[in-house]
Amino acid sequence: MGVLGLVSPNFSGSTVAGAILEGFENVAHVGEVWKTRSEKQEKKAFCRECGPDQRCPRFTTDFIRRLRSVDIEKFWGTCLAGVEADWIVTGDKNPKIYERFTGFPDRFLVLVKNPIAAALSYSKRYMETPEKTDDSISFLEGGLRIYYSKLKERYIWVKKTGVPFSFCTVESLFTASREDLTIASEVIFGSVLGWDHSRIKSKMHYIGGNHKISRGKDADYFGGLFLPDYRYRKEVDLADQVELVNRYIRRYNFNEFLDDNKEVVASEWLKGNEVDLIGVDG
To answer: Does the predicted model carry a pTM greater than 0.90?
Structure first.
């Protein structure tokens, strides 16, 4: 029993990863629950699926009030008791959030996304889209700078906390079999948990997220339809992808990260061969 905290740069698939992790037995994905404790985020502290104007069976008004008012030392215990699960998965991602609003979880899971896919998400949100496709390289470089600097910063922070951690690629969660996920649970949670997509419901209940997991569809949406983000393949050709990613691995001195993560290299993603679930206890 405990709390698994996801850590990653923003726009790296933590909401969908949390949904997949809810497929493990007695695990509940609660999303960005820190927003229940922030005055600036108070208006966003509602269930993403139910919306602000509907009653949520998990995040009731009373439950949110308790999460907001409880001392930080008791926050995760209150959250676990209210959700009534053996494990909860939180997508708070940012070290400053854990330090200021919620306290440390029992374990961390560092999520690593295909860097080109992540860079495209950042660039399209924060930078002007180039008028010509010839500018797509410089367009993506801004997103890569943000992604790699945040990933390295947050990975190093996790190691310094002393909290047990594991890591995996977001893409591997999408493509792993039921058996692989069950095996991976021992690394992620510290004990073997069975996984089945039937536990993932279209009406999940979690705080925050950039979009609804269900997208308004029925539970059949979860019958193997979580797919890696391949939109980048239409934007940048393969040679440029490899050159860009390797350049930024060098620029941000990712040797330490790569020594722990032998599988997390550009070539595996860019060939379309998704890397295996991987993990190392911190």
So the answer is: no
